[in-house]
Amino acid sequence: MARAGLTADRLTQAAAELADEVGFENVTVSALARHFGVKDASLYSHIRNAHDLRVRLAVLALAELADRVADALAGRSGKDALVAFANAYRRYAHEHPGRYTATQMALDPDTAATSAAGKHAEMTRAILRGYDLWEPDQTDAVRLLHSTFHGYVSLERAGAFHSHPRGVEASWTRALDGLDSLLRSWPA
Amino acid sequence: MARAGLTADRLTQAAAELADEVGFENVTVSALARHFGVKDASLYSHIRNAHDLRVRLAVLALAELADRVADALAGRSGKDALVAFANAYRRYAHEHPGRYTATQMALDPDTAATSAAGKHAEMTRAILRGYDLWEPDQTDAVRLLHSTFHGYVSLERAGAFHSHPRGVEASWTRALDGLDSLLRSWPA
DNA sequence: TAGGCTTGCCTAGAGGTCCTAGGCAAATTA
DNA sequence: TAATTTGCCTAGGACCTCTAGGCAAGCCTA
Which residue ranges carry the DNA-binding annotation (chains A, B) (predicted)? Predict the structure, then answer.
C-alpha cells in the first residue's frame, strides 16, 4: 500500500478547510482521518490529541488573520488604516468562519506568545499612530477596538442582529465612524 | 426504588450549575445523568437530545442575564445607566462563565423570538433614552454597545489581554467613558 | 383497598469519537 | 542489499449519544 503522506502541517491545513465547511466544533480526528482515507489511529503519530490539533488550527488561523490585516494596513494611516484593518478583520471572519472561531480558542500563555496572537495587538497599535494617543490610553484603545471588532462579527454570526431590519453593513460603517471620532477626541 | 423526580426544568437548572463548574462544552447528557444518579437513557423522556438540553440552558441563561441587567438599570439613566448595564453584563459573565457561553449559542429564529434574546436589545435601547439618539442611529448604537460589551468579556476570558500589564479593570472603565462620550456626540 | 393506567427509570444494544499498544511493511540510510 | 526508521495498520478499551422495549412506582377510579 502507498502511504498517504501525512504531516502535521498537511493535517492542520486540511483541518482548517474542514473547519470552514462544517464548523470548528466538528473538526474531529475521525473526520480528518476519513478525509485522508486513513484510520484515526494513524493521525496520532503526527498530532498529540484532538486538542493539539485544534491548537495548531488556531495558530494557523491567527497567522493568516495577522497577514491579511498587515496587508490591508500597508501604506495607510489614520481613519483609512482603522477602516482597512476592521474590514480585513471582518472579511476574514466571514470568509473563514471555522478558522475565525479557532482564533478565539483560549491558548496557554506559551503557545500564545509563540503564535501571532501578539502580532495582532502590535498592529492595532500601529493604527493608533495616526491618532494622538500615548500609554496607557493606547492599550485601552487597542482593547476597545479589538473588543468591538470581535464582538461585532461574533454577534453578527450568532444571528443577534437579525431581529431588526436595519442593515448590518450600515451599522458597521457607523460603528467605525464612531470609533474614529472617539479616538480623535479620547476623553482625559 | 424511589424515583429521582426529574423534570426538564430541574435538568436545565442542574445543567446550568454544571456548565459554570466544568464549562459549557462539557455539559453532557451522561454527566447530567451521573449527577442525578440515574442512567443516561432516563433523561431522554425529559429532553429530546443533547442539543435540546443546551438550547434550554441558553434560554435559561438569557433570561437570567436579562433579569440582572434589568435590575441594574432600574431608576438610572444616562451614563449611570450605561455603566450599570455594562457592569451587570460583565459581572454575570464572570460569575457564570458556563451560562454566559451558553448565551452565545446560535438559536433558531423561533426559539430566539420566544426567549429573552429580544428583551436584551430592548433594554439596551432603554439606556439610549438618556442620550439624544433616534432611528436608525439608535439601532447602530445598540449594536455597537452590545458588540463592545460582548467582545470585551469574551476576549478577557479567552486571555487576550494577559499579554499586557495594564489593568483589565482600568481599560474597562476607560472603554465605558469612551462609549459615553461617543454617544453624547454621535457623529452625523 | 384493589384494580387499571400512566409514566419514570431501567436494561440492552448500536454507532460514533478519542486514544493506546503493538505489528508489519514502506521508505530511508548505511 | 541489509539495517534502521517511520508510517499506517489492527485490536481494543473508555466515554458519549440515542433508540427500543420492559417493569414497577405512583396516580386515578371504584
Answer: 28-47
Q: How high is the pLDDT of residue A165? A: 67
B23 CA to C15 C1' in angstroms comes to 26
Nearest to A109 among B107, B157, B162 (CB): B162
Whether A72 contacts A88, CB under 8 Å: yes
* pLDDT tens readout for residues B136-186: 899 999 999 999 999 999 999 888 888 776 799 999 999 999 999 999 998
Nearest-CA distance from A68 to chain B in Å? Answer: 19
Amino acid, res. A2: A
Q: Say how far apart CA B41 and CA B183 lie, in whole Å.
A: 53
Tens digit of each residue's pLDDT (9 = 90 or more) over B40-94: 999 999 999 999 999 999 999 999 999 999 999 998 989 999 999 999 999 999 9
**Could you tell me which of A156, A30, A19 has the C-alpha nearest to residue A101?**
A19
Per-residue pLDDT, A117: 67
Report how far apart the first and last C-alpha atoms of chain B are (Å, whole number): 70
Kindly determine whether the C-beta of residue A2 is less than 7 Å away from any atom of nucleic acid strand D: no
Q: Of all nucleotides in the shown strands, which has a C1' nearest the CA of A1?
A: C26
Distance from CA of A188 to the nearest CA of B (A): 9
Residue A97 grid coordinates: 468562519
Tell me the nearest-neighbour CA distance from A143 into chain B, angstroms.
7
Which residues of A fall within a CB distance of 8 Å from B152? 143-144, 147, 151
Q: What is d(CA A117, CA B65) in angstroms, rounded to the nearest whole number? A: 30
Cross-chain CB nearest to A178 (options B112, B160, B186): B186
Q: Which residues of A touch B178 (CB under 8 A)?
A: 140, 144, 182, 186-187
- Structural domains of chain A in order of their starting residue, each with its CATH number: 57-184 (1.10.357.10)
Supply the DSSP string of A69-134, one letter for each residue: HHHHHTT--HHHHHHHHHHHHHHHHHH-HHHHHHHTS---HHHHHHSTHHHHHHHHHHHGGGTT--
Q: What is the ipTM of this complex?
A: 0.89
pLDDT of the residue at A5: 81
